[in-house]
Amino acid sequence: MTKATKILLPDLVSHCTFKLRHSRHRKQITTETKKWLFKDGNLLGKSRQMYHGLKCGLLTSMTYPDAGYTQLRVVNDYLTYLFHLDNLSDDMDNRGTVSTADEVLNSLYHPRTWNSSARVGKMTRDYYKRLICTASPGTQQRFIETFDFFFQSVTQQASDRAAGVIPDLESYIALRRDTSGCKPCWALIEYAYNLDIPDEVMEHPVIRNLGEAANDLVTWSNDIFSYNVEQSKGDTHNMICVVMNEEGLDLQSAVDFVGDMCKQSIDRFNEERSRLPSWGPEIDRDVSVYVNGLADWIVGSLHWSFDSERYFGKSGRKVKSSRVVELLPQRR
Q1: pTM recorded for the entire structure
Q2: Mean pLDDT, to the nearest integer, of 187-204?
Q3: Which pLDDT belongs to residue 332?
Q4: Domains of the chain by range and CATH?
Q5: pLDDT tier at 328 (50, 70, 90 boundaries)?
């Protein structure tokens, strides 16, 4: 069987009908976060070039378009730091994700008393001290808990990768919902818009299902977009590889399979949105803002994936139009 040299991406952009919006603070937050990130010699050489190609300020601008400057800046600092967590933790003797988690989580649970010289700890305390100035107690708790889940799942992913394990689809989906890092970003929707939604409302099945559907779309589409770079490195922790292994599909059929799952997650989001109950005018207003924030993440992440250089280099616009991706050679 001839080895595939290209894949055709599913047309997720057309399937998503949510309005794409931008924040007027984009340029300002990009400039300020850059100063913050590069402080004390952070990110040199190739890592610095990758930062510019990432265009994280654009992602923040499209996923929190109505947030005020102060909140948007904290969100952008966090998202940028999340993308570069590996680089920021490289002064910790490469002891892996467990030591990084210790630094980050201690900085979150004890922002005023935990002291460490590690850059990742310093940066965590810095943005979190700003976040807790206005974030509700429930928002703070959800942010920390879901970030804790993120590190637990990333540690499991690193273990699977080292052992060459390709999980089954059900296990992969459960793990990927945490390795995506989306759940803390959902808590940041609450923070960005100064929401104070009661815990029992946030735990309602419809609200949880909406968050899950948005997470699935962002995460599974990311697996499609990042597949080319990952396959060139021999990384199999990707839904396309999982589907090929479990369903016995060829590459393009697996891409189509995951693409259909992405489309179904958008449909699922719309269906759950139509089922939202009422908790009274004040809570309903906050819930509406929160759910709109999830929709902004769905549409914003899709468009940003082609604007960023993270997945398609300088060819993002061309790929967005043609949907054709030429596969990179595998590194030996």
Answers
A1: 0.95
A2: 98
A3: 59
A4: 20-319 (1.10.600.10)
A5: very high
